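Data follows
____________
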Amino acid sequence: MKPIYIPKGKAKEYGDYAINIYTGCPHRCFYCFAPNVLRKDRELFHTQIEPRPEIVDETRRQIEREGITGKLVHLCFTCDPYPTGYDSTATREIIKLLKESGNHVQILTKGDGSRDFDLLDSEDWYGITLDGSETATEFCDRVYPMRDAHAKGIKTWVSFEPVLVSSNVLDQIIALKRVGIIDKVKIGKLNYYPSDIDWSDFGRKAEKLCKDLGLEYYIKESLRAEMEGSE
């Protein structure tokens, strides 16, 4: 097993290297692609969550064998590095290995990764996922750890992909920028499911907003295609 790999397709837009630590994810996002990619029953994917067999040891061996260093490694694509309600010790051990070998991490979670902020520095990224459908409590639960990460000098980012409620996403971008805890956003459309969002209009508004706020941003290719297709 080679836990660290080079992403392909849409995942390539998020990072040059990645690692998936767990066998599933408890968040039950209806749009999640992972069960299909892994050819796993969706219910089992959302309920049977544990570290992949020997993931820590295999990661150590791959780093030593291939001399992996100086890379930014994304955590994670087919799972959440901090699965709510489950032990995330494996994530901490993976981060330790990556950092000790001169690599950096780019975290993306719907959970709370604050337990590992002591391992991160200004070359690491701590990110959360928002789609505009969050309740006020859900929004605060995800944002609070990011606030603490930013205060510690860790770079912070938000993945607005997929966007479910476009007007709320624009408001969230404004709110996060105003409180000064966000360094970058990546914005993408809902793919493979019906939506009444005018993606071209939303994309243009989101891009203009980021420019007006002086916020570093990236428009995912599928959303960019909608914007350019209407010109």
